[in-house]
User: Which sequence fits this backbone?
C-alpha cells in the first residue's frame, strides 16, 4: 500500500462547547493533513497527482481561513471541534476527488492539529466515502 500526504495550514477562530458550556472565542493556526492510499503505482511511478489532492484540500479549507468557524457552515450547527473539523475535511476532500483519483486510490484519513502535540484524526473507510 502506498500513502501520499498533503498538508496545509490556516488561521481561524472557534469557541467549542465543553461539558455543556461554550468556551471563549480563540484562534489557532490549524494544520491539516489529508492522506490518500492505494495498492499500486501507475506506469510513471505515481500513486496520484499531489496537485489534485492539494487543490481539493485548499478548496475545502479556504472558506475557514481567517474566519470564526462558529459562523461558517457546517459549523454554524456543529460544534467546531478538531475532531469534527477533521471529519469535515476528510469527507469533503474525498467528495471533491471522486472520479479524479486512479482506480483503487482513496482518501484514508484527515488530521487536524490545533496546537503542538494535539492532533485529531478522522479515518475514512473506503466503503464509507461519499
Assistant:
Amino acid at each position: 500500500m502506498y500513502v501520499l500526504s498533503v498538508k496545509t495550514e490556516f488561521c481561524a477562530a472557534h469557541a467549542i462547547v465543553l461539558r455543556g458550556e461554550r468556551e471563549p472565542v480563540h484562534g489557532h493556526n490549524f494544520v491539516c493533513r489529508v492522506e490518500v492510499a492505494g495498492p499500486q503505482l501507475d506506469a510513471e511511478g505515481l500513486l496520484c497527482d499531489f496537485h489534485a489532492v492539494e487543490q481539493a484540500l485548499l478548496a475545502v479549507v479556504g472558506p475557514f481561513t481567517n474566519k470564526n468557524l462558529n459562523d461558517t457552515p457546517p459549523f454554524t450547527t456543529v460544534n467546531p471541534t478538531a475532531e469534527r473539523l477533521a471529519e469535515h475535511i476528510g469527507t469533503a476532500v474525498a467528495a471533491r476527488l471522486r472520479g479524479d483519483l486512479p482506480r483503487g486510490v482513496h482518501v484514508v484519513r484527515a488530521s487536524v492539529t490545533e496546537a503542538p502535540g494535539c492532533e485529531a484524526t478522522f479515518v475514512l473507510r473506503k466503503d464509507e466515502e461519499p
Summary: The first strand starts at residue 2 and ends at 14. The mean pLDDT is 94. The CA atoms of residues 38 and 103 lie 8 Å apart. The chain has one domain: 2-128.
